[in-house]
Design brief:
Largest sheet: 7 strands, antiparallel
Mean pLDDT: 83
Number of helices: 6
Oligomer: single chain
Helix content: under 10%
Number of strands: 34
Amino acid sequence: MRKLIQLTILTLFLYGCNLGDLEIDNLKDLTYSPSVAIPIGSASYTVKELIEDIDDQEVEINEKDDLSLSIIYRDNSSFQISSDFVSFGRIENNINYNLGLIDSEPSPVSTTIPIPKTTFTLEFPEETGGDLIDSLFYLSGMLSIEVTSTFEGTVDYIATTVGTKNINSVDDFSISSTVRENITDLNQTSLSNFKTVLNSNNGKNEFEFVLEGNINIPVGARTKASDNLDIKIVISEIEISQIFGDFGLTEVTLQNQSIDLDFFEDFSSTGLALNDPKVKFEITNEYGIPIKLDLSGMTARDNNGNSVVLQGSIVDDGIEINAPTKAGETANTQIEISRANSNIQDLLNMTPTNISVPINGTTNPDGSPGPLFNNFLIDQSSIEVAATVEIPLDVKMQDFSTEIDFDIDDIDLDDAESLTIRVISTNELPLNGSVDLQILDTNGTLLHEILNQIVLKSPVVDADGRVSTPAQSTTDITLSREGIDAFINGSKILAVVHASSFDAENDTFVKIFSDYQLTFDLSLSGEITTTIDLND
């Protein structure tokens, strides 16, 4: 859109017709007078040709069957939530196991005392709290079992962590070992390719630890009532590949997405109204967690620090992201923010250069996922968000302006006394356009200005919304001697382009069609003290 307005109103007749290459010092043999008009050239463009030159790789132009146009801006992002949503630190459980023996005299013979098969219920806490874990698969981790005995003699034992097993085995992980009096027996196992199945009890994640074995009392040894086994079970350095459970109702911050709209950079923040802009999100979710999005922080900002916050039913009601029901599958969600459910027109009418979208949400918004555990997280999974800003060229402009500046160092007018550029436009675009030209020096000081030069006149838009008869206008832009001196001493021209659309005062929106044509014919007249050789 920026190129469309700039090129049609100013750039075409300044650049496209080679005025920037005009060097009057090099003209010889023919003296000009104010009554002589020399054609400079003609340029004719369709709207489609103009917008194909938009210098923004992020922008697409969509042409529909009826030749109406839309500007499309796309932005893609991807984020993961596993490490932030469910995490485990060092998990440690301690057991002080006293068999209830009595003090005895030294044994005259070797004696074996059986340790009955005993089950202990231990906790497997999750750091964020409130998540009921059904099962988890390890990328890595370490299981340590330390046993210290105060019995005189040795203890042969079998320790089993119920529910923890190699993924290629049906048997729970178990160790058989022997511990001596007042010596700690340490056994460690890598949990890579292991899984743990947990139980839930009153909101806690639990697993069972089973101990059995024999106490070997040698001749002359005795038992004491205080004898016991101290057992420490530690699971550490946990990294999860998959986890299943009920992750509850949890507030989560997923990611902040930022959409840069560079094509609005040079626009004023007022005067433009877009009839039906939309922002669309296509979300692909690989996590088994439905999430209700909160878009209340979505904010548009322009270059002047102004901002508008998204409001409407789409904010009030929230948006639920669908979730797959099986690991390895995906679920898609389509979101459309439009004038029907929000104030998106206000956000985009301010010509923002950035839209920030804090993506916050609530997991399992409808409560527990079901009678069976069916939430899941996979370490390589992600949520993909494809954002599309769609701006149909169905607009209303009133008191709209934008600024363009360009260097004039290469234009030589030393021998001109006065100079007039005649611009004849034949216009099918439903836009009126005028321009204020300011000649500035290297410090930005104003040297000369030419105000309110009408360069476009809008044709009438018919009842079917199309223009059938183009409008023609003629404008003479004159540089006096004072203006030429400013031109010679200046370094750039600042052009303030003012635009209004057909019947904007009556709140009429107009569509821009790709086949609309704009033609400029330029001629030059002036009082020049130099002659030229036309054959050079």
